[in-house]
Amino acid sequence: MKVLVTGGAGYIGSHTVLCLLEAGHEVIVLDNLANSSAESLRRVHELTGKKAQFVELDLLDAPSVDELFASSEFDSVIHFAGLKAVGESVVEPLRYYQNNVVGTLNLLASMNNHGVRTLVFSSSATVYGATEEVPMVEKMPLDATNPYGRTKEQIEDILSDLGAADPSWRIALLRYFNPVGAHESGRIGEDPTGVPNNLLPFVAQVAVGRREKVMVFGNDYPTHDGTGIRDYIHVMDLAAGHLAALDYLPSHQGVYRWNLGSGKGSSVLEVIQAFGEAAGKPVPFEFAPRRPGDTAVSYADPSAALADLGWSVHRSLSQMCEDHWRWQVNNPSGYGS
Ligand code: UD1
After folding, report:
1. Mind listing the pLDDT tens digit for each residue in 141-181?
2. Whose CA is nearest to atom 21 of ligand 1?
3. Could you read off the pLDDT of 261-313 as tens digits, one per residue?
4. CA angle at residue 180 from 136 to 153, to 5 degrees?
5. Is residue 333 part of a domain?
6. Distance 221 CA to ligand 1 centre (A)
7. Rg of the Cα trace of the chain?
8. Set 128, 148, 232, 256: catalytic member
């Protein structure tokens, strides 16, 4: 298949590009490099011996996006490109709606104009909002609680309307839980700019000595150790979920929603402990107040993805930490090392 991957130079994108190339697909990456590095794709080439074509382009540049579709015959699109920092989205909502929603509308218009109607979209468990009901099941009502999450929810709505209006579309909405880890080579991984917002990259930077200690946001949650519980998923398992969805769509019209998670929750303290074991040294931490907007517990019911796609996770929390650590220690400053 000839696959366009928007945001393919980013964290989840680059791991998925690697898997696509290994599976024999032809890959074209569109990325504006706003929050990613072309070095990731150079390393994917080094790892696979295969090259994805790279087009540096912003989805907000609608005429150029349309030209790309006019000059290439894509079979399908995997759409990762988007801004993803929750806190930043609260401060700059217009930039988030413009970039994520308008960028997606431009992409969809070009897909529609050029008869490319197979799409895998990078959604998030964040669309479930602050519900205390676990595990999360695809049919639960959506209720995102911040602008970033609402861009994901709005794009899901747009895609649902599109699928209802024109049944020739084949759309997979993949709701990721908490992606962590890195390719086992330690050559590609997550390279957050500035202070990481998410737990694993922060813990990794503490372990490598870039930061002093982890602040554990809340130890008074109604959980077994008082800290928040999340469903961590290895980025290579997540990448495999995209290939499974891409294999499913050619024989299935319509819009499909799948949770991509392990179905198992781990607490912040369990993650810090597992990371310390992987790194061979304890990771210093301190308890701090709860982070506004956080819920106590979130984990997936991943049974729909198993039933429909035959997909499930294969990698444990220890493996996530070991692979994340290998990437961190070999690339202490990310791709800038
Ligand atoms: C966050 C986002 C979510 C996004 C997801 C992407 C918020 C409120 N939610 O989810 O929208 O889809 O990342 O992966 O930002 N923690 C600490 N110390 C830290 C960082 C995190 O204790 O320095 C705790 C959090 O309170 C939480 C857990 O670790 O219990 C995981 O946090 P994080 O990695 O930020 O993910 P989410 O909060 O699940």
Report:
1. 999 999 999 999 999 999 999 999 999 999 999 999 999 99
2. 199
3. 999 999 999 999 999 999 999 999 999 999 998 999 999 999 999 999 999 99
4. 40
5. no
6. 14
7. 19
8. 148
Q: Judge whether 148 counts as a catalytic residue.
A: yes
Instruction: Please give the Cα distance from 323 to 286 (Å, whole number).
Output: 25
Ligand 1 atom closest to the CA of 221, numbered from 1? 30
Q: Which domain holds residue 238?
A: 2-179+232-261
pTM of the shown model: 0.98
Interatomic CA distance for residues 159 and 173, integer angstroms: 9
Quote the CA–CA distance of 19 and 44 in Å, as a whole number.
9
Please give the structure tokens belonging to residue 211: 């930061």
Examine residue 17 and state whether it is found in any structural domain, yes or no.
Answer: yes
Testing ligand 1's pocket by substitution, the residue of 84, 123, 136, 198 carrying the most ligand atoms inside 8 A of its CB is: 198
Total domains present in the chain: 1
Query: 91 CA distance to ligand 1 centroid (A)?
Result: 18
Atom of ligand 1 nearest to the CA of 290: 26
Q: Is residue 313 part of a domain?
A: no
The CATH number given to whatever domain includes residue 84 is 3.40.50.720
